[in-house]
């Protein structure tokens, strides 16, 4: 019997994953600025919304208003009641408002884990995005503490039976890469003055996967992955 898979919302990427993501686990999407991490994460949660699932998107760097504006242009329906967006970006008002509900998501990974658990008391979410995790890493004082907290976060998410997608900048993602169940890397190459985009899966526990770098494009309808083509470099 084959394991159950869930769609990333991007058919070409599901093909590279040999059917999709194994649910109930934590995954990492890493890439340089502008490679499409937020867009990929949005495809992932929206695939849940289309199934009538409740999903949670925590934005830590891009303010909710910008995110809504940019993602609506790509055709994502962000006003669906199954889609919950939490803006945990630092704002000036934060220091004026004495009790801001969402601050706990941004402070550190322990507080965020607790905040997510509390959210589950109201609603069960099948998919969660933390975009990006980098912000929470920077608040940790010691690497060992971050590692411990990150592992505890993974275990909590598994207990909640939710599938989590974290985004991250390329540098210093080593701890996360070891601890998560799968890693998707978005790359941009400069090929004789033109931008070529390529996606690669570097890890997928419990499954085989396509280990080639496959071309992808960001279009007016979001990300398209060409799983049957090769990236051509000069
Ligand atoms: N309609 C479109 N056609 C082509 N490219 C687009 C379109 N809309 C957005 N883009 C491109 O998508 C990229 C932004 O994607 P996204 O915000 O998902 O990236 P990101 O990796 O999350 O970036 P950051 O690191 O800044 O958070 C930009 O490079 C932008 O030019
Ligand atoms: Mg982004």
What does this structure look like?
It holds the Pfam family ATPase. By secondary structure, the chain is α/β, with parallel strands linked by helices. The chain has one domain (11-225): P-loop containing nucleotide triphosphate hydrolases (Rossmann fold, 3-Layer(aba) Sandwich). It contains 8 helices and 9 strands. The protein has helices at residues 11-16, 37-50, 64-73, 103-107, 109-119, 134-138, 143-159, 174-179; strands at residues 26-31, 55-59, 83-87, 127-131, 163-168, 182-191, 194-204, 214-219, 222-225. A 9-stranded mixed beta sheet has the order 3-2-4-5-1-6-7-8-9. Strand 2, helix 3 and strand 3 (83-87) form a beta-alpha-beta unit. Helix 5 (109-119) runs parallel beside helix 7. The longest helix is centred in the middle third of the chain and has 17 residues, at 143-159. It is globular and about 50 Å long. The termini are far apart.
Compute the number of structural domains: 1
Please state the overall shape, judged from the principal axes of the Cα atoms.
globular
Structural classification: alpha/beta
Number-wise, the strands total 9
Radius of gyration: 17 Å
Top CATH class: Alpha Beta
- The average pLDDT score comes to 92
Helix share bin: 25-40%
What is the gist of this entry?
Keywords: ATP-binding, Nucleotide-binding. The chain is of the alpha/beta class.
Task: Give the secondary structure arrangement, pairings included.
Elements: H1 11-16, E1 26-31, H2 37-50, E2 55-59, H3 64-73, E3 83-87, H4 103-107, H5 109-119, E4 127-131, H6 134-138, H7 143-159, E5 163-168, H8 174-179, E6 182-191, E7 194-204, E8 214-219, E9 222-225
């Amino acid at each position: 019997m084959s394991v159950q898979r869930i769609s990333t919302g991007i058919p070409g990427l599901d093909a590279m994953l040999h059917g999709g993501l194994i649910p109930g686990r934590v995954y990492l999407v890493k890439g340089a600025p502008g490679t499409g991490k937020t867009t990929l994460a949005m495809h992932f949660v929206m695939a849940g919304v289309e199934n009538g699932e409740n999903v949670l998107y925590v934005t830590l760097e891009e303010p909710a208003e910008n995110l809504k504006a940019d993602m609506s242009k790509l055709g994502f329906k962000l006003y669906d009641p199954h889609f919950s967006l939490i803006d945990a970006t630092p704002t000036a008002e934060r220091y004026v408002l004495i009790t801001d509900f969402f601050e706990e998501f941004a402070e550190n990974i322990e507080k965020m884990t607790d905040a997510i658990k509390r959210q589950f008391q109201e609603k069960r979410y099948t998919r969660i995005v933390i975009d990006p995790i980098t912000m929470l890493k920077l608040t940790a004082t010691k690497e060992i503490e971050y590692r411990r907290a990150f592992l505890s976060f993974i275990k909590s998410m598994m207990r909640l039976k939710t599938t989590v997608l974290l985004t991250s900048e390329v540098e210093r993602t080593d701890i996360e890469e070891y601890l998560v169940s799968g890693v998707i890397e978005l790359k941009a190459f400069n090929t004789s003055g033109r931008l070529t985009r390529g996606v690669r899966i570097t890890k997928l526990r419990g499954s085989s996967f396509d280990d080639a770098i496959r071309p992808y494009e960001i279009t007016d309808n979001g990300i398209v992955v060409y799983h049957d083509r090769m990236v051509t470099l000069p």
